[in-house]
Amino acid sequence: GLGLGVLVGRAGRFAPRSPPTRHPLVAHASPTHRLLVAQEQFFAMFSSQFDSSKFDIDIKAKEGINDSFSFEDAAAALSAHPTWRAAATTMTDDERRSLFDRWVEKRREEAREAKRRRLMDYLEACQWITVRTTWKEACDALYRIPEFEALSKYDQVDVFDTFMAKVEVREVQSQSVGRLSFLLSGRAWMSG
Questions:
Q1: pTM, to two decimals
Q2: 186: number of CA atoms within 13 Å, CB side?
């Protein structure tokens, strides 16, 4: 067997070591850190170039990227951009394509959330919606409203359900306040 001295000697050699600390701005940062920095730079570059009116790319009223917008379109439009040129020397096309795809997906999700917020704001302004309003009644009333039509069926139902939960909470709160004021008015009558 192994003696105690041998085990103690090995423990020091296999003891976990803490990783060296690195300043985030050091050039020899970890590959993960470099990828995150590159992703941030790409997102900033894509946003600054395609959110401005410098390029005539179909972005559908700035609500999201059209499905026809491709990595090749971005590469052609950004070929002279310093960040794109620098990335061409340090990243493969697959890595740049992956970053571009993540940026496009982020933009689509932002556009979807903006559409959902607009429908929620529209519903908040509708005085005719009560706790008794059904989904069918809402669809019949909203089917030509742009905020409603802009969303998928799933998002329409989800936003409506969320809104109806708010309406129900308001109804319960107003009933509670009504009961409280009735009780208080009864006490005032009895004491007066």
A1: 0.61
A2: 6
